[in-house]
Write a structure and sequence with these properties.
Strands 1, 2, 3, 4, 5, 6, 7, 8, 9, 10, 11 and 12 form a twelve-stranded antiparallel β-sheet that branches. It contains two helices and twelve strands. The protein has a single domain, classed as Lipopolysaccharide (LPS) transport protein A like domain (lipopolysaccharide transport protein A fold, Sandwich), CATH 2.60.450.10. By secondary structure, the protein is mainly beta.
């Protein structure tokens, strides 16, 4: 009598054991963070703005993400130009370049060296291809042949002639001039 009342349960339990999926079920979670559309080793490219060459970009490795229009660059070197003339070279451990906005977010051991030998170091720097400017919202150091300085943040053109510094500190070698800033 029990058999007649529960035949569906016996079939269901048998099917559940025999029909159990093996392996990992597929998920629909969109693009994974480590699934680049294209990976390039020893990548070299040129960036232009309205047909004018703005920079040469080199990276040990470049991960391209088509949908997001971005490149994740590792161990990068960028030669920044102004009206076709090289003005400075930027190096960093990593950088994210957004092709739609023309902006680069460089991080880790960022260094910018101008063609006349001035040197800026920071852990984070933004480069805007459209305006051909660089800026940082983190602490930085600056050296030239006769000056040493630091600050909380800065904004500048790519050859560092029009430089604006937040909370500057520094001196001219041999002159002892201290720039104004808090905590002197």
């Amino acid at each position: 009598m029990t058999r007649a009342l529960w035949p569906g349960l016996v079939v269901a339990l048998a099917c559940q054991a025999a029909c159990a999926p093996t392996g990992v079920p597929p998920t629909d979670r969109g693009e994974r963070a480590d699934s680049a559309d294209q990976v390039m080793l020893k990548m070299v490219t040129q960036l232009t703005e309205k047909g004018v060459l703005q920079s040469y970009v080199e990276a040990d490795t470049a991960f391209l993400y088509q949908n997001e229009q971005r490149m994740d660059l590792r161990h990068l070197r960028i030669r920044l130009l102004d009206k076709g003339t090289e003005r400075s070279t930027l190096t960093a451990d990593r950088g994210i370049y957004y092709s739609l906005s023309g902006k680069l977010d460089a991080r880790g051991n960022v260094e910018v060296v101008t063609t006349d030998g001035r040197r800026l170091r920071t852990s984070h720097l933004l480069y805007d291809k459209t305006s051909n400017r660089v800026e940082s919202d983190t602490a930085f150091t600056y050296e030239s042949g006769s000056e040493v300085g630091s600050g909380k943040a800065f904004r500048s053109d790519v050859d560092f002639h029009n430089l604006s510094i937040d909370e500057p500190r520094g001196f001219q070698k041999g002159k002892g001039i201290l720039l104004p800033g808090p905590g002197r």
